[in-house]
Each structure stands twice: as C-alpha cells, then as structure tokens.
C-alpha cells in the first residue's frame, strides 16, 4: 500500500513532486501532460462548450496535501485553492491525526431529494391521494433512468409536507432518489418534472417548481480524529483549542469564519475533482444553522487521556460519475490521484480534509496566531516567484519576515544581493 506520509514534499521540485504523485496514483504520461498544461488543462474550445458567452479560461493553483490516512487507507489529496497556507495546514493536520491512526469517516448512501411545489389543492385530500398513488409515481419516475433501475437504485419514496407562506399554505411533494455514485442533480430534476403532470392529475392542482434540493440531509458524512496531546502542544493548548471552539459555537460572527476554514479544505478538494462547490457550501451553511442559530460545524473535546478529539459532520452531495468530473481533463486526473471508487469514499475524503484544515487553523489561532505561518508561506511563494533556488528561499524569507516587508519587489532585491 502506498504511503502518503511524504517527507518535505514542499521542498521538492515540480518534476520530483509529479514523479511522486505519478508513482502513488499510477498516472500515465498523458495524465502528467494534463497536469503540466499551462492552460489549466482546458482549451478555449472546451470552455466555450461548457458555459455561455465564454471569452477565456481562468486557472487556480493545484496542489497536493500529504499524510492522509482515512479508514486505514493512505491518500494524497489534490486541492485547488488560491489561498496560501491551506494545503500546508491540511497536510499538517493529517500528519498529527496520523499518530493516533488517522481519520475515521462514514458517509450515508447517496439519496437525493427532489421537490415539487403544488398550488391550488385541497392539501389533506391531496396528501391522501398522493400516498395512494405512490407506487405509480415511483414507477413513472424510475422509467426515466434505466441505469439506476438496473442497479437497484432510483426513486424510492414519495412524501408530502405542508408549509405556511404569506400567500397561504402550500403542499410540497418530495421524491427521495438513490442516485448511486452521481451527484444526481440532473436525474432528480428529470424525475420531478416527469411525475409532476401525474400529480396535477391526481390532485387537480397546479405544479410550479420541480427541482432538487441542495440541502442534502440524507447524504451526511461524519469524520472523527484524535490528535495526540503532546503533538498538539500539551494540555494547555488542547484546552485553548476547546475554548476557541466554544467561542465559534456560541457566536455567529466567529462561527462564520470558523466554518469558512473548514470549507477551505473541503471545497479545495471539491474544486480539484469537479464537484458543485456552491451546492456544498449552501448545504453546509444550512446545516450549521439547523438548531435555529448558526453554529460551528465541527465539535472539539478531549478524551480521558487528555488528547484532543475533533468531529466534523456535514451534508455532502458529491459524485464520481457525470458532471464536470468526466469532462474537465484536470478534474479527471485529480479524481484518479484521489482514488475514490464511490461517491461515499469521495465524501469521506472531503470531510476528513475539512477536519484536518480546521484543526490546523484553530490550533494556530489558539497559539501563535494565524498570520505567522500564513505570511511565512506567502513569503516563500514570493521568493520562489522571484527566481530563488531552494537554498536561497529560506534566507530571503527570514529577511522579509524580520523586516515585515513581504513583497515580490523586496524578494527580487534580496535575491540580487545574494
């Protein structure tokens, strides 16, 4: 089994990093060419087919987080993000979690929820009529996807709920669909639109909206990790981290920033493998407010030995088939690097990455502050951009940090002096 604990990965050249990733994930020469493409792996012609009114492409940095052990298996995790320190922080969090065995993660089956808004109906009567016709509705829905039906998946349940609005009461019909290894938006929308005329006929009502819900509460992923007390920095640091969590859990202003840090990890993976990051963010934020107020998505405590324990639970609607993941060349290679064989496995990796990132961010805040590490990495990037060699970078970084003049121009000046 390949080992994701790669010493000083950040110090290696691009070629060496690519060689390590290629060996870990068994990448082909064609895969490597995609990663080396200076256009981010996508031509304008392909972009023009993906979106309307295209005028170009936009690239973001793609990096690799190391050290991840999830449910006993090693992973290197591709992450696409423009913010310095995130990939390093996720790698560091995974390294500390690894001491106690890594991350234990579980994910629900891939159940998507479709909604049909019914107007102008006798709601109690309509609910009874829909219940009596549920088998017919499910059969019609499943006729729209031979693939899911053959796999024993597809539409599984029809339910109803009544909501109050300023315009009066409305009936919402919900369709529960097992979408397998897909994110499932298209098939969910197709099924909702397919059964809405029959619901109108059954209830003598009018269907308005027919669309999936991105609040994927039937697709919950839960990660847990134990961070050894000594590796965290001792009992006082553990207590400080728990106090920092309690701040986030009880103050919305802090909670938003705290949860943004979690999403730094989760969404960077989503970007790399072509997932719908907007849907993931929206669902996570709704889940953070499920108690009636916006709270921390993660929970932090300590065990009987004083070790730090982190738990992250989020709804994740993701897939490894369909969508951009099968269209974008870089997303396809990143999916191969990740090695996830199911939507559930992908959700587990993304949740573990969010927890690793949250650990590193909250530990930095509870000890030295967030800026020290962040600015050091920023300075390293600038020194490298100025053309410094690995041997020169540390010297330039130290001088910029000491002077508090962290800029590309200063990096170039220092390089000339060397």
UniProtKB/TrEMBL annotation:
The keyword DNA-binding does not apply. CDD domains: HMG-CoA_reductase_classII (cd00644). InterPro entries: HMG_CoA_Rdtase, HMG_CoA_Rdtase_bac-typ, HMG_CoA_Rdtase_cat_sf, HMG_CoA_Rdtase_CS, HMG_CoA_Rdtase_NAD(P)-bd_sf, HMG_CoA_Rdtase_sub-bd_dom_sf. SUPFAM superfamilies: NAD-binding domain of HMG-CoA reductase (SSF55035), Substrate-binding domain of HMG-CoA reductase (SSF56542). Transmembrane segments: none annotated. PROSITE patterns: HMG_COA_REDUCTASE_3 (PS01192), HMG_COA_REDUCTASE_4 (PS50065). Keywords: Oxidoreductase. It comes from the Archaea. The keyword Oxidoreductase applies. GO terms for biological process: coenzyme A metabolic process. Belongs to the HMG-CoA reductase family. GO terms for molecular function: hydroxymethylglutaryl-CoA reductase (NADPH) activity. This is 3-hydroxy-3-methylglutaryl coenzyme A reductase.
């Amino acid at each position: 089994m390949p080992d994701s604990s790669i010493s000083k990965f950040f110090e290696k050249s691009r070629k060496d990093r690519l060689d390590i990733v290629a060996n870990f994930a068994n990448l082909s020469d064609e895969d490597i060419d995609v990663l080396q493409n200076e256009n981010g792996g996508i031509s304008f012609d392909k972009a023009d087919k993906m979106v309307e009114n295209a005028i170009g492409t936009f690239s973001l940095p793609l990096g690799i987080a190391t050290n991840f052990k999830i449910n006993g298996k090693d992973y290197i995790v591709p992450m696409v993000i423009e913010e310095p320190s995130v990939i390093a922080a996720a790698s560091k969090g995974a390294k500390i979690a690894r001491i106690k065995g890594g991350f234990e993660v579980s994910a629900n089956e891939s159940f998507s929820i479709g909604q049909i808004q019914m107007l102008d109906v006798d709601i109690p009567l309509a609910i009874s009529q829909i219940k009596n016709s549920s088998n017919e509705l499910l059969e019609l829905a499943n006729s729209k996807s031979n693939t899911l039906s053959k796999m024993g998946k597809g539409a599984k349940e029809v339910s109803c709920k009544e909501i109050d609005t300023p315009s009066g009461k409305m009936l919402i019909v919900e369709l529960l669909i097992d979408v397998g290894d897909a994110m499932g938006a298209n098939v969910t929308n197709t099924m909702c639109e397919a059964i809405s005329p029959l619901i109108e006929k059954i209830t003598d009502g009018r269907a308005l909206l027919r669309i999936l819900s991105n609040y994927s509460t039937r697709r919950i992923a839960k990660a847990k990790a134990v961070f050894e007390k000594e590796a965290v920095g001792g009992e006082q640091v553990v207590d400080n981290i728990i106090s920092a969590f309690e701040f986030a859990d009880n103050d919305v202003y802090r909670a938003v920033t705290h949860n943004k840090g979690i999403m730094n990890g989760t969404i960077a993976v989503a970007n790399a493998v072509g997932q719908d990051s907007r849907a993931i963010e929206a669902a996570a934020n709704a889940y953070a407010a499920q108690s009636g107020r916006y709270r921390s998505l993660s929970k932090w405590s300590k065990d009987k030995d004083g070790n730090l324990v982190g738990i992250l639970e989020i709804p994740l609607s993701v897939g490894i088939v369909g969508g951009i993941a099968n269209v974008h060349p870089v997303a396809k290679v990143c999916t191969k690097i990740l090695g996830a064989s199911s939507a559930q496995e992908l959700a587990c990796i993304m949740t573990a990455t969010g927890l690793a990132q949250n650990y590193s961010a909250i530990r930095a805040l509870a000890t030295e502050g967030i800026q020290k590490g962040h600015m050091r990495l920023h300075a390293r990037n600038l020194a490298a951009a100025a053309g410094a060699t690995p041997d020169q970078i540390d010297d330039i970084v130290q001088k910029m940090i000491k002077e508090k003049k962290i800029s590309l121009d200063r990096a170039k000046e220092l390089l000339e002096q060397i």
